[in-house]
Amino acid sequence: METKRKRKAHEWVFEGLYLLGSIGVLGILTIVFVNVIMRYVLNSPLHWAEEVTSVTLVPLCFFPAAELWRKKSHITFDLISKRYCSRYPKVDRAREGLICLVGLVFSALLIWETAKNLRLSYVLKMGEPSILGTPLWLLYLFMLLGSAALFTGFTYSLIRGSKGADHAGRH
């Protein structure tokens, strides 16, 4: 029961981050559309539009990544998997495990470097050199949250895959 509740909470967090990413897409589309109308029709562009869209791109890229991984909706190169892995399920499990392991290492390194940059940008009060002066720690915080969710997703997939391999070997 407790594992099922954790799994539901895990899915809820990933879906929430995916929803935030989707709202970000809608926000970027709206801002760009309004800015094009303001710039070329009314000859009065929104000066803050570039910064807001670039700041929104960071969570847009990092937040949905874990949910896309969980749903297997990410981009795949399946030339090898369609040809060999469908015939050899052990090869497919090994390939999935290797991908999870590489993703786990990558997201761990991303968390480490992002945490260092988050701390540095906060201590030095670094900001974007623009009209709004968005603090850089905010962008690094978005990256850290998305990377941590991705790390959790890879860990979950690796554990689930190893349990599936254990059960497959017992039959």
Describe the structure.
- There is one protein chain.
- α2 packs parallel to α6 and α5 packs antiparallel against α6.
- The protein has 6 helices and no strands.
- The protein has 171 residues and is an all-alpha fold.
- The chain starts with a helix and ends with a helix.
What would the principal axes of the Cα set say about the shape?
globular
| Percentage of residues in strands | under 5%
Which structural class best describes the helix and strand composition? mainly alpha
What's the tally of helices? 6
The overall strand count is: 0
Written as H for each helix and E for each strand, in order along the chain, the element string is HHHHHH
| Low-pLDDT sequence parts | 166-171
**Helix fraction by DSSP (H/I, runs of at least 4):** over 70%
Q: How far from one another are the termini? A: 25 Å
In this structure, how is the largest beta sheet organized? none
Cα-based radius of gyration, to the nearest Å: 20 Å
Mean pLDDT across all amino acids = 81
Spell out the key features of this protein.
mainly alpha, disordered C terminus
In short:
The protein has 6 helices and no strands. It has helices at 2-40, 49-62, 65-70, 79-85, 89-123, 136-170.
Write the layout of secondary structure elements.
Elements: H1 2-40, H2 49-62, H3 65-70, H4 79-85, H5 89-123, H6 136-170
Helix pairs in contact: 1-2, 2-6, 5-6
